[in-house]
Specification:
7-stranded parallel beta sheet; Transcription Regulator spoIIAA; 7-stranded mixed beta sheet; alpha/beta; about 625 residues
């Protein structure tokens, strides 16, 4: 292991190089790269090629960011680490489409489309070419959906409007897990960690790169949480998705390292965007400060809003999960925590300068589970000091250790991208990226070992090949790993692989299945409703503590940590044909959880309710006890 002095010297040299290279660099937003990995110290020839590529990429990207009607790049202004763009409208003109100005063309297209027994992209394009948009160009799917909403009655489709909208909808998978995920980013801010695999882009939150699509959107809106949230909601609506049930996913490195007033303000502004969606433009709020009282007012409004927050996910480090922090997370309305475990080896964590050990990871997972949070872990194979064999042993520890056993998991094989200390280890030959064959074999084994009660949310980080200095540039490693499973007679049984998704559940038999396992000094019950073919319709997570809760509010209570029904998102309060939601499946899961808690001798069942699901539980007898809702058994 290199000495701390040599690492410090390496950082100082790199900082001087970055300072000199950026002294004349434009601050215009960049497009085209992805996050994560590391740079560090490739051989000079490789470094010069990477520099040439990034320079040419910056040139191309700056031409896209020009002010309308001018030859000058769009300007940006920096205030500390906050970027506010000038000359670039927050609301893109492509959304300013008035279907009434194109009534004849839209009605003609929609009538013909409704008569087609089915269509693919080629058939749709041929139809659109027969009925071009007045002026120029062809109608987009979002414009056809806008026309359907405006002229549905005039078309007289005999109740087939929903079917036609479904055929026009794009990216249906976005809401096939039952919610509309809305991802927003916090502003750039320092992280207490010094991980050698993590890149640093001063324009972005720690570990993120400026050309990721999500980061580009965040920068476009000046990292304003209201505008980011409203923008994603508009995007969903434009392509025909329901947005009644929103899962807010806040990314940006280490949430707990931001000042508390900023964190309260950020969440408050996200809720304001949900509560006021479709209203007149909100007054800008650049204060970056808010009180708990102001946030709680927005929480209360969201309980009755048309667009409800049914989940709030935040990400942080294990060593920052104190009891005080857990309470603050709950007051914010969080229900899920993304936690960067990265490795379960103290030696590997130390080599990679993670800044904490396995003990802190186990304590954080136990503390969060006992407070009811959903546990979404991040794990990284191919870290400095590891090997494929060691990674297989490390992955097994995730599910063998009762203190861990995450509900969801992201697997991010380490790669080297510009801006990380890992490059020095790569130059010296101390770190070697795995080959694609090694990765496919490893990932296939990991998928096969993932239990049915865990969801593999993502495998392989979405990094542009041109940004990877060393490591795999294969984008479909998950598909290759799935193919390897099939070749070897194995299959994935994780939640994501079994979700019912777009399949019509109307005639499906829903049968209960339960799996119990030790977790954090208690007993976890994973209660499923599945079809005879083992397609997952919904599930509940019930934790029965084995010792008194450290939170007074949860003393003597069993804890319902999650209740989720899969399938296409159905509008609030309405049963839609072909949807798994609103068919009583959730009530059935809830009743079974209550029965198990009662049988185990618990007098109360507490639930960690999202803000927007509070009315659901209150209609079923739960009462607010402060940070949780509780049902007397």
């Amino acid at each position: 292991m290199r000495s701390s002095r040599s690492r410090s010297t390496e950082r100082e040299r790199r900082a001087r190089r970055r300072g000199s290279s950026q002294s004349g660099r434009s601050h215009s937003p960049r497009r085209g790269s992805k996050r994560a990995g590391g740079r560090g110290g490739e051989a000079e020839s490789r470094a010069s090629r990477a520099t040439a590529r990034s320079s040419s990429g910056r040139t191309r990207r700056r031409t896209r960011g020009r002010n309308p009607g001018s030859g000058r790049p769009a300007r940006s202004r920096w205030s500390g680490s906050r970027q506010i763009h000038l000359g670039v409208p927050l609301h893109s003109s492509r959304r300013e489409f008035d279907p009434r100005a194109h009534e004849a063309g839209l009605v003609s297209v929609l009538r013909e489309l409704a008569e087609l027994p089915g269509f693919d992209e080629r058939a749709l394009e041929a139809l659109l070419r027969r009925h071009p948009r007045a002026g120029n160009g062809l109608f987009s799917r979002s414009q056809l959906l806008a026309g359907l909403a405006e002229f549905g009655a005039k078309l007289a489709l005999g109740g087939r409007e929903a079917e036609l909208a479904e055929r026009l909808r794009r990216r249906r998978i976005r809401t096939l897990s039952g919610v509309a995920p809305v991802t927003v980013f916090t502003k750039p801010h320092p992280c207490p960690g010094r991980c050698i695999f993590c890149p640093t882009d001063a324009r972005m939150p720690k570990s993120y790169l400026s050309a990721e699509p999500g980061c580009q959107r965040a920068a476009q809106y000046g990292f304003d949480p209201f505008e980011q949230t409203a923008g994603r909601l508009r995007d969903y609506r434009a392509i025909g998705h329901e947005v009644d049930k929103v899962e807010l996913i806040v990314l940006g490195g280490t949430w707990s390292a931001y000042p508390l007033p900023y964190r309260i303000w950020f969440v408050k502004r996200c809720f304001e965007a949900l509560n006021r969606f479709g209203d007149a433009a909100s007054e800008p709020d650049r204060s970056e400060r808010a009180s708990w009282i102001e946030l709680e007012a927005e929480h209360g409004a969201n309980e009755r809003a048309a667009l409800r927050c049914v989940g709030l996910s935040l990400e942080t480090r294990p060593d920052l999960v104190s009891e005080r922090e857990v309470i603050d997370l709950r007051r914010l309305g969080a229900t899920k925590i993304q936690l960067g475990l990265q490795s379960l080896s103290d030696d590997i964590l130390a080599l990679n300068e993670r800044g904490h050990g396995v003990r802190e990871a186990r304590e954080a997972m136990r503390r969060l589970r006992s407070a009811g949070f959903k546990l979404h872990a991040h794990w990284m194979p191919n870290l400095l000091g590891s090997s494929p064999a060691e990674d297989r042993r490390d992955f097994a520890r995730l599910f063998e250790d009762p203190e861990l056993r995450p509900d969801e998991l992201k697997i991010y094989p380490c790669v080297l991208v510009d801006g990380a200390d890992l490059g020095a280890s790569w130059r010296r030959g101390e770190w070697r990226p795995y080959t694609d064959e090694e990765l496919v074999s490893l990932l296939a084994d990991c998928i096969a070992r993932t239990p049915r009660w865990t969801r593999l949310t993502r495998i392989v980080r979405d990094i542009s090949a041109k940004d990877i200095v060393a490591g795999s540039t294969t984008a479909n490693l998950r598909e290759l790993a799935d193919a390897r499973l099939r070749e070897t007679g194995r299959a994935s049984s994780d939640i994501r692989a079994r979700e019912v998704r777009a399949e019509s559940p109307e005639d499906m038999e829903a049968r209960l299945r339960e799996t119990a396992y030790a977790a954090a000094g208690g007993r976890e019950h994973f209660i499923e409703l599945e079809t005879p073919s083992e397609r997952l319709l919904g599930f509940a997570r019930l934790w029965l503590p084995g010792e008194p809760a450290w939170l007074e509010e949860l003393r003597g209570a069993a804890l319902l940590r999650e209740l989720h029904v899969y399938g296409a998102l159905a509008p609030l309060g309405r049963h839609a044909a072909g949807h798994a939601q609103h068919r009583g499946l959730g009530q059935r899961l809830l009743a079974r959880a209550a029965d198990l808690a009662r049988a185990a001798g618990f007098p109360r069942l507490a639930v960690i309710s999202a803000v927007g699901t509070r009315p659901y539980y209150e209609r079923r007898g739960f009462k607010s006890t402060g940070l949780y809702h509780s049902l007397d058994l």
